[in-house]
Specification:
The structure is a homodimer. Chain A has helices at residues 7-15, 38-55, 82-96; strands at 21-23, 28-34, 60-64, 67-72. By secondary structure, chain A is α+β, with helices and mostly antiparallel strands. In chain A, a hairpin with a 2-residue loop joins strand 3 (60-64) and strand 4 (67-72).
Chain lengths: 97, 97
């Protein structure tokens, strides 16, 4: 099981994840992605869903037209772990292409 | 532009849409779909996204693992229209297969 990052580790990880911030008293990280339209927004979600399923680590996320709001947390660890950092980085990569 | 359904028309439409209910003072309809796992939940979203894009009418929705919570409204009409009823029916069809 992945272990929960402490505040220092979490801050260091966030420094390398543009747009992501700690939420819910530091037990999760979140970012809202804004695209051009629904096609782009859902295309991002489809690609991110495949990564998440492969990792067996899934986002809490919502979509309204061109926006996708994502929250990541590792429930079994009670906070943010390397799994969240890895998935957040993958989402940034997908959105940036 | 589709016209907003009045309360009577909306109630009649909801009677034919199992699981959907009026929310936000009757200006929207909502349903939470629960699937077996993320694979099924996102499969539903992918199919519904294609229908929504074809209709050019998009849901506000969120997903957490096996749950998908959907809210439909026609913003340009300030309430629920036939577009929402049609998309809600299509989502029930997709989820029911």
């Amino acid at each position: 099981m992945p272990s929960k990052l402490n505040a220092e580790e979490r801050a260091a990880a966030l420094a390398g994840l543009p747009g992501w911030k700690a939420v819910k008293d530091g037990t999760a990280i979140a970012k809202t992605f804004t695209f051009t339209d629904f096609n782009e927004a859902f295309g991002f979600m489809a690609r991110a869903a495949l990564v998440a399923e492969k990792m067996d680590h899934h986002p809490d996320w919502s979509n309204a037209y061109k926006e996708v709001a994502v929250t990541l947390s590792t429930h079994s660890a009670g906070g943010v772990t390397d799994l969240d950092v890895k998935l957040a980085g993958a989402m940034n990569d997908i959105a940036g292409r």
